[in-house]
From TrEMBL, chains A, B:
Domain named HTH tetR-type: residues: 8-68
Gene (UniProt): kstR2_7
UniProt key word Acyltransferase: no
Binding region for DNA: 31-50
Family annotation (InterPro entries): Homeodomain-like_sf (IPR009057), HTH-type_TetR-like_transc_reg (IPR050109), HTH_TetR (IPR001647), KstR2_TetR_C (IPR041490), Tet_transcr_reg_TetR-rel_C_sf (IPR036271)
Molecular function via GO: DNA-binding transcription factor activity; transcription cis-regulatory region binding
Protein name (Swiss-Prot/TrEMBL): HTH-type transcriptional repressor KstR2
Length: 198, 198
DNA sequence: GGAAATGGTTAACGGTCATTAACTTCGGCC
DNA sequence: GGCCGAAGTTAATGACCGTTAACCATTTCC
């Protein structure tokens, strides 16, 4: 885990606020003036940091997909040889991401089409690799599961884990640790059910 | 099941195409001219059938929430007294909806904020009732599950069941029946895991 | 100490788009 | 046969919004 102590750069502030706003009201629903206002500068000042509104979205989506894949690969390298432990580790990592970066998770599957062809291709490629990583592990843990079923199950479990943004305002939740544990159990339960009766 | 034999009215055509387009590119991403073109009339002709673009979205979202809730209540009435069977029935109904009306499912949790205050309140109220219906049943089947955990689990399973739109182009799927069966098993497995180790 | 880069500002431009206006077409009905 | 309402049409309007232009402050560095 790399923890940062230095202050976030203006660029990072902008990305963070843009992510929040995009997630709340959609890419087209947010104006550049709003994004600017969220970081204390106004409208066109953003163009000192980004080529345009599209560029912000692109950087966000590529960043997300990259982080997920990188984290997944790292975990795969660490838990070398133990599929059970690796599956748990992947689930844990995805949950951390979903809980800590809700806005990004929301963007991730909502605004992909707004990207330039090249960026969209890149994001999709990263996403695909991430899914394949999961599919391989799931099939090692549950060898009876056919590949299409495994892939569908992985997508479904992503949907499950990514459901946290919908959990109303953060109030009703039983606390972060308990939520993480619950999501973990739900995910493992889903996989187990798919893998046993196939 | 009420099956219709008469031709769809122009109004229904519009709603259907609008749902598809909104789901594909987002509410703000679709112009009225496009919606019109999709049903063979052009642009402002839509205003003979709807008060405005917002009105279409409102009718779609209220319709979805209403259908889900109505269907859920009907199932609750039918499977009287047998929580296990009712849970299966609810899952089955939700899966049917997710598989048959993908665009609507997508809209359902994506564009709620675009609504007028009153419509949004109505939709949320319908959604809440639907969730509560599930929560009650889940807690009857798994009495050890505390209420907040049950509610979170229900939301998570919704995320799981609603994941079908993300399953790439309909090609890779193992056929509708098999997909439905797999989703059902995943959902039951998730609930079982949450309910046993609480 | 001055030049240049950096990060802002406000004002203007241009395009897109929902909505309205004004006008047509046509099928049913007395 | 003439009226009328329903369902369209195109053209105009007005708002919004992303982007660019032109200009200013401040820091950095030779």
């Amino acid at each position: 885990m790399v923890t940062r102590t230095d202050a976030p750069t203006r660029r990072e502030q902008i990305l963070k606020e843009a992510a929040r706003l995009f997630a709340e009201r959609g890419f087209h629903g947010v104006g550049v003036d709003e994004i600017g206002a969220a970081v204390g500068i106004s409208g066109p000042g953003l163009y000192r940091h980004f080529a345009g509104k599209d560029a912000m979205l692109a950087e966000l989506l590529v960043g997300i997909s990259g982080q997920l894949l990188t984290g997944g690969k790292r975990r795969a390298a660490e838990a070398d040889g133990d599929p059970e432990a690796l599956l748990d580790s992947l689930i844990e990592g995805h949950i951390d991401f979903a809980l800590d970066d809700r806005p990004l998770i929301t963007l991730h599957d909502r605004e992909l089409d707004r990207l330039r062809e090249s960026d969209r291709k890149l994001v999709r490629q990263l996403q695909r690799q991430y899914v394949e990583l999961w599919v391989e592990v799931v099939r090692q843990v549950y060898p009876d599961l056919a590949e299409p079923a495994a892939r569908a199950s992985v997508h479904a479990v992503f949907g499950l884990l990514n459901s946290t943004p919908h959990l109303s305002r953060p109030g009703a939740l039983p606390g972060r640790a308990a939520t993480a544990q619950l999501l973990h159990r739900l995910a493992r339960g889903a996989f187990a059910a798919a893998g046993s009766g196939a």
